[in-house]
TrEMBL record:
Residues 4-147 form the CobQ/CobB/MinD/ParA nucleotide binding domain. It comes from the Bacteria. This is Chromosome partitioning protein.
Length: 258
């Protein structure tokens, strides 16, 4: 099980699209996926509800900073992944999700505005790391990338974020009509018919490579083998009992509010 938080303080950067693509691909690999829709707009939950029970994708809404840790404990199961779709608000819920995830995934389009939103998330991550003395595994994914040319602004944004120490998911999310269509019809990208949606096969291949890279990033874990929440819950099998005995685990302080 892994918890992935998808965040960018800028709206429209491709968070919900990345959540839907990742959920689709992880569910196809045979695990259950729960989307924690932390955005009051509820677009990710709407999409998940239209995927149907056979998709193995469900959603939870009305998440608050008070209920997020309980949801994570309750949903903790080896054959399940959790993806949190955050709103653009740089608030307590975002900070908590970033502090408890195994990977903070930050979608960024090739625009200075998106890059600034990503840097705000990065600064929040650094603040949590400094206070909790933890490492948060994080990576940028370039989104809505033109499949034919890398624009100058995209290259600038990529270089700026790498300079700031943001790791990059190798496969960018390409601009594809199919990634918009999937929000307009029931089912996942695998239930759209190729004839109705141009380049569906390329969209699926891009989604597969993206999900593979995201999971590889979680498995290699950045500097740590597991994120703070993994250390707290998954390795020690203490789903509901509360924090483990190791005082140095940062999530213990988060759960205790200290
Ligand atoms: N890779 C992509 N290809 C095509 N359209 C995209 C892509 N990523 C995002 N979009 C479109 O951009 C808009 C904003 O994306 P969205 O995922 O809702 O961003 P956010 O959740 O960050 O606000 C939506 O209309 C979405 O359909
Ligand atoms: Mg969204």
């Amino acid at each position: 099980m892994a918890v992935i938080a998808v965040a960018n303080a800028k709206g429209g950067s491709g968070k919900t699209t990345a959540v839907a693509l990742l959920a689709t691909e992880l569910a196809r690999s045979g695990v259950e996926v729960v989307v924690l829709d932390c955005d009051p707009l509820g677009l990710a939950a709407d999409w998940a509800s239209r995927c149907g029970p056979q998709s193995r994708i469900t959603a939870v809404t009305d998440i608050t900073p008070g209920t997020l840790p309980d949801h994570l404990r309750r949903l903790n199961r080896p054959d399940r992944h959790i993806i949190a779709d955050l709103s653009g608000a740089r608030d307590t819920l975002m900070a908590l999700a970033l502090g408890l995830c195994d990977l903070a995934l930050v979608p960024v389009q090739g625009s200075a505005l998106d890059a600034r939103g990503a840097i705000q998330v990065l600064e929040l991550i650094q603040c949590i790391e400094a206070n909790a003395r933890a490492h948060i595994n994080r990576a940028v994914v370039l989104s809505r990338v033109n499949p034919l040319v890398a624009t100058r602004s995209l290259r600038t944004v990529r270089d700026l974020l790498m300079l700031r120490g943001m790791a990059m998911i190798e496969t960018p999310l390409v601009e594809r009509g199919a990634y918009r269509e999937m929000f307009e019809r029931p089912g996942t990208l695998y239930s759209l018919e190729g004839r109705q949606v141009p380049n569906l096969d390329r969209a699926q291949a891009n989604m597969q490579a993206f999900a593979r890279d995201v999971m590889a990033r979680i498995e290699c874990g950045g500097r740590d083998a597991h994120g703070p929440f993994a250390q707290l819950c998954y390795q020690h099998g203490i789903a509901a009992e509360g924090p483990c005995a190791n005082d140095d685990r940062p999530a213990r302080r988060l759960f205790q509010g200290g």
